[in-house]
Amino acid sequence: MASFVHVLLFVTFVAVTSARQWPSGCIPEIPTVPHIDPEARAGQWYNYMYLGEHPPRVNDALHSAKIGKGVVPGTRTKAMVANVQITWWTPDYKTCAGQYAQTYVTKDGREVMVVYNYDSPQPLSLTSYAFAENYTHWQLRFFCLEKDVQTNLCKNSNFFFNTRQRPDTLPPAVLAEYRAAVDRVLQPYCLSTNDFLTETWTTQYPVCAPNPSQCYSDLINGLAAQFGGSG
């Protein structure tokens, strides 16, 4: 049970009472996603829309930085080793919160993560999928938190629809173009961006940056020493 709660903390989907019924779509637990360029995927992203319940947040941003090259632990799969920071303000603007992840990003679209919440030393393991990538404009990240054992489809499908520029600075016509592109990706899976909710953004506050835990800082420093010269 504890590990399940930790998963919800990372992907920001918390088990709260809500009248909204989130659709799961018709997506395999492990989807077939296009091959990607891990380094082109790195950098700054901003959450525009999401599918799945999570507590209210403002200016939800993600930054991924390459540490070096390695292999996914326990495998021979080559991967980019990265440091990922996900940060946001609480709606009262009193708390700058976040999560930090050391990840292995593979060309087959997987991102294998060791995750630390900003206020907890306890890590957890997760895997996300690059459901669709447009490296310069938008991306669609997918998590499956629960599968249907009878159909092998994802029973609890969760998405982040991110943009390279802050959504509140993009013209409505551009956002509509991005949504149309993502809708084409989602259509075979019984979903559309009409099923998503829009994240809150305001220019009154910058993207925040809470301090990571010492455990996470030690992990990243060790990986930088190990992989930092690997190109």
What does this protein structure show overall?
The protein has 231 residues and is α+β, with helices and mostly antiparallel strands. It has a single domain (2-227), classed as Lipocalin (Beta Barrel). The chain has four helices and nine strands; from the N terminus they run ααββββββββαβα. The chain has helices at 2-11, 38-41, 172-186, 214-227, and strands spanning 43-51, 58-71, 78-89, 96-105, 110-117, 123-134, 138-144, 157-163, 197-198. An eight-stranded antiparallel barrel has the order 1-2-3-4-5-6-7-8. The longest helix is centred in the last third of the chain and has 15 residues, at 172-186. It is globular, with a radius of gyration of 17 Å. Residues 1-19 have low confidence and may be disordered.
Low-confidence stretches: 1-19
> Mean pLDDT score, rounded?
85
Number of helices: 4
CATH topology: Lipocalin
What number of domains? 1
Strand content: 35-45%
What do we call the CATH homologous superfamily?
Calycin beta-barrel core domain
User: Secondary-structure element order, as H and E?
Assistant: HHEEEEEEEEHEH
Using only C-alpha atoms, the radius of gyration works out to: 17 Å
Q: Please report the first level of CATH classification, the CATH class.
A: Mainly Beta
- What structural class do the secondary elements suggest? alpha+beta
Please give the CATH architecture.
Beta Barrel
User: What fraction, in percent, of the residue positions are helical?
Assistant: 10-25%
Question: Describe the biggest sheet?
Answer: 8 strands, antiparallel, barrel
Shape: globular
Count of beta strands: 9
* End-to-end separation: 39 Å
Instruction: Provide the spatial order of strands within the biggest beta sheet.
Output: 1-2-3-4-5-6-7-8
